[in-house]
UniProtKB/TrEMBL annotation:
Its biological purpose: Acts on leucine, isoleucine and valine.
EC number(s) given by UniProt: 2.6.1.42
Organism: Aequorivita vladivostokensis
Pathway: Amino-acid biosynthesis; L-isoleucine biosynthesis; L-isoleucine from 2-oxobutanoate: step 4/4; Amino-acid biosynthesis; L-valine biosynthesis; L-valine from pyruvate: step 4/4; Amino-acid biosynthesis; L-leucine biosynthesis; L-leucine from 3-methyl-2-oxobutanoate: step 4/4
InterPro entries, per database record: Aminotrans_IV, Aminotrans_IV_CS, Aminotransferase-like, B_amino_transII, BCAT-like_C, BCAT-like_N, BCAT_family
Classification via PANTHER family: BRANCHED-CHAIN-AMINO-ACID AMINOTRANSFERASE, SUBGROUP IIII AMINOTRANSFERASE
CDD domains: BCAT_beta_family (cd01557)
Cofactor: pyridoxal 5'-phosphate
Any one GO molecular-function label of the UniProt entry: transaminase activity
Descriptive protein name: Branched-chain-amino-acid aminotransferase
Keyword line: Amino-acid biosynthesis, Aminotransferase, Branched-chain amino acid biosynthesis, Pyridoxal phosphate, Transferase
UniProt-listed SUPFAM superfamilies: D-aminoacid aminotransferase-like PLP-dependent enzymes (SSF56752)
Family to which the UniProt record says this protein belongs: Belongs to the class-IV pyridoxal-phosphate-dependent aminotransferase family.
Amino acid sequence: MNSSTTQKIDIQKASTSRIGEVDFNNLTFGSTFSDHMFECDYKDGEWQNPTIKPYGPLTISPAAKVFHYGQAVFEGMKAFKDEAGKVWLFRPEENFKRINKSSTRMAIPEFPKDLFFEALTTLVKMDKDWVRQGLGNSLYIRPFVMATQEGVSASPSTEYKFMILMSPAQAYYTGDVKVVIAEHYSRSANGGVGAAKAAGNYGAQFFPTNLAREKGFQQVIWTDASKHEYLEEAGTMNVFFRVNDTLLTAPVSDRILDGVTRKSVIALAKRDNLAVEERPVLVSEIVEAAKNGSLKEIFGAGTAAVISPVSAFSYKETVYDLEKQEDGYAARFKKELMDIQYNRSEDPFGWRYEVL
Ligand code: COI
């Protein structure tokens, strides 16, 4: 792996900050961006010209391969400000490893580790005022890579752009999330790109999710592509089921994203001696558990929402309601994770990464 570089980042500061124009109490997730962004191009076999510049539009050829073949991957991570004003990232090493894993799957060259961390920390330091204090407030960080070579031949690009954008976010209230268990559409297949955070994985979900919305549900629980017998992910998140006091989730595979929140929930559960099973979870066993009352909770786990409880699911036109659990596992893991993220508790796993 090309893990180090000697390149210096060219820093072009914005002449004025846009922060005064932002209503931090009324943010729509992912639609406001901080003053600066990071950009680095891959050309002639190497990453070059790393630059931090004012956030703004790009000029890219309409024939760039990303527009035609979707050769693009991304990451999602967050910066948090604690009560003393210190800024922290949560397990950024995991996002770094995963973006390169996703890139490899999409035939994109890996990005150097030291440049990733240098860019990330410099950018967060420059735009530190965009990380607001208060539980639930964060700066959502979006590293991504896209194929920029001009040309529509169906082959891997020889040129890429690696970028990092940052977007202030408030607590992500998903409200009452009702989900439909997929019986026809699939998110991923064996040998496919499900384990990669490939842009097209998300775009492909929009149509079936719209169909679910038309029926009054917010998300889809994805099932295996071959027989739709196993429960795999929920919307853009990993998914957990609590049957009695046992936590069940699908094992990571080339169909399942190795989620940072997912693995953190599992680590917290194991530390607390809760029963956790990472194994294929049958739709039929969850339907049966809903019928006999042993299904206590379903929740999604991801960076944006942290933990998102599901209030009902639909399968074969039958709706199964779940009782609201004020002190359930979802609430417990969300609190434990956020306490670590916001430096409100000990960090026994060493997950916090101090930026400044
Ligand atoms: C996450 O929460 O992990 C996501 O990937 C959400 C993003 C697609 C907005």
